[in-house]
Amino acid sequence: MLIYFTVFALSCCLLKMAEKSKRKQRIFLVLFALCIPALLSGMRDYSMGYDVRLYGNRYFYMAQNEKIMSFMKEMTLQKQIEPLYALLTYISAVLFPTPHYMYFVQTFIILLLVYLAMADIAYSQNNGEGRYSIWVGMLAFYCFLFVDSFNVLRQHISVAVLLYGFRYIRRRNYFAFGFVVLVATGFHYTGILGLGLMLLYMYSDNKRTMQKNTNLKKYCIKLGRVLLIKIELKKFIKYAVLIVVCVYLVLGGGINNLLSLLVNLGILPGRYSTYSTNGDIIIKLSSLLSRIPVLIFLLIRNRDEKHYPNITFFIFISILEMIFVQMRTINLVFFRISYMLIEYKTLSMMIAYGNEKKNSKYCTLRCAIVIYLLLFFVLQFFILSSEGVYTSDVLKIY
Q: 8 or 360, which is more confident?
């Protein structure tokens, strides 16, 4: 546990220093700050992480002994691995001698994409002066997802790409975000779920004046409202229970048939047939209670409409993530959806924390957010599971 806290503290301190530095110094401090956790990830023991043991190392060494065309053909057609991840693996195998370097590069790319997504929000207002504390958002990422990144290599990159593409949703550049979705899908097929995030943002973005220069945007807005049901924020919480019941009843059994159909039609790879389960509904109270504080933080911030123009979107994300994380026992598809939503929660923590100067109004809230993130990390990865136990042949930590 100590090595995680040390790395997280060093990275966040450097990011905090970067917020108050000039542009050139900021770039250096940010890159240095992101390299620290990337190094920790790269120097992991090969026994850490489900995907590392399943295919990470194996495909790396396979790429070292094959030509690019034969490797890509085998990965995409026989192994049914997404093409962009296969290409990244091959490039890493050509450039580096061991998988340690590949995991460092992959983690650094992910961290950089996440940082750029947060910086786009933080520095897009106030003439470039940071309105939000990026270091808090990165701390949320470390506490929510850093350890889990050892288990979901491909989807972790895919979700980071979608998070980076959030800038295009905010600017209503839906064509650009569509391209981002294609890139994300190239790393993991669940990247296509990014279209659902776009529709959710369209629905929640009811405080802004919609541009009327294209019929496509009008159509997308109407489609988003039809699919998501136009309801007020206060009513959304009331409908949440009804949504859970409906999804359990309809998708709980029907999604297995849908997966089988998509696999038989060749739309999804054959390995997705293993996602079909007949799990029972199990409400994990600890998982539910550990996520309620995020919703409380956002609701407190929601009182200040000037703080962030569309905080409603992140409130929706928080509620939906609590729902889908409870539905993991029904089908593994819900796990994939919840993982994507958790990544967007990192942005919500940065927004909830804020960065008001000479204002002690939210001092207690900020302290509560930092304490909550650290407690969540300990609870999730050290008390409820053993995934947080770091081992490394390189660092001689066992």
A: 8
